[in-house]
Amino acid sequence: MEFNRLIQNIRDFSWDIIDNFNNPSTRRQALRIASISISIIILFFVILMLWWDKAPNEFNPTQTAQQVASSKQHKFVTGYTSTVTLITLTDNLLNKSGGYLSNDVMPPSIWMDNIPNWEFGVLVQIRDFSRALRNDISRSQSQSLEDPDLAIAEPQFNFNSESWLFPPTESEYQKGIEALESYLTRLSSTEQDSAQFYARADNLADWLAIVEKRLGSLSQRLSASVGQARINTDLAGEPAAIQSTPVPAEIIIKTPWAQIDDVFYESRGTSWALIHLLKAVEHDFVDILQKKNALISLRQIIRELEATQESVWSPVILNGSGFGFVANHSLVMASYISRANAAIIDLRSLLNQG
Question: I need a labelling partner for 287 at 20 to 30 A (CA). Which of 1, 123, 203, 222 fits?
Fold first, then answer.
């Protein structure tokens, strides 16, 4: 009986709704309420998108490291600044306004692509530096044992950047932060010497070689925004070199229209992370840089990369045709990154000299 009564109540309620919608006045009122509700939701999403669509503020790596050392009562040793900077970059990636957006599946973040591409640019530099820290900087030679905490941190940062659940990306990167913090504690301890940071010219040069390739790739992708016919130089300089499959002597390179802003914001994220890492390196490797007379070269690289962080006043990333009437933001970005990359090549040359 109770079940039949429930069914009857639902049926009566449904007929009441239908009868009300047959009334023009009631129908207009319902549509007005629905329109206002949808407008409020859209406005709320737009405000959130505008709030989340910005990079975190820059921080001073040396001052941040000194504050961390003071708060944790750690000894401020060589390598402390670089390690704290790596931790801070990852923490900013996860805890900036809006949090980590690359793996979101709900609105409004699922509609956003600028910040997720910025996040990926930062993440690539976190991965590269943590790999260099694990494989080179924390080891005295190729046959020495790797640091156990860095052996945990480096693969954690290489976890899928778009995993929403089981497990979420944020939890895996947080485990990497915890491993780095454990390494940092041991690094600053005067009672044990199991954690080391070797500020040597060859270690710095090896990491800069990775940075050089990253910036070179970004520069090419940015320049391809207008489309270019390029001579194939894959085997240039090596007469006996061969490759797996043949390619044309001249190739057309052009970034798809929908990916132009993606490459631009990935480049901004890469540059933002590199600015902080290079400033940290300047502090930890200062003796080597001064001895090699390379300190000014490093500061010039930082200056070039800082120019990539200027505000973009256009609501969209413009893609004018070279010397055309409309600006091309990708080519401007490529100019700064190319100059920074050229300076890195010169810096590596200085570091490799005896």
Answer: 123
Indicate the pTM of the whole model: 0.89
User: Does a structural domain hold residue 240?
Assistant: no
Chain centroid offset of residue 128 CA: 11
Range of the domain at 34: 1-51
Query: Is 190 within the bounds of a domain?
Result: yes
Does 241 reside within a domain?
A: no
- Rounded to an integer, what is the distance from CA 241 to the centroid of its chain? 35
Other CB atoms within 10 Å distance of the CB of residue 166: 5
8 A C-beta contact, residue 250 and residue 229: yes
Rounded Cα distance between 324 and 255, Å, is 18
Q: Are 203 and 117 in contact (CB under 8 A)?
A: no
Same domain, yes or no: 284 and 326: yes
Burial class of residue 332, CB neighbours in 10 A (0-12, 13-18, 19+): middle
Taking the C-alpha atoms of residue 353 and residue 316, their distance in angstroms, rounded to an integer, is 45
User: For residue 318, is it within any domain?
Assistant: yes
Residue with tokens 């240039």: 236
Rg of the chain on CA atoms, in Å: 27
Span 308-338, pLDDT tens digits: 999 888 888 888 776 777 888 999 999 999 9
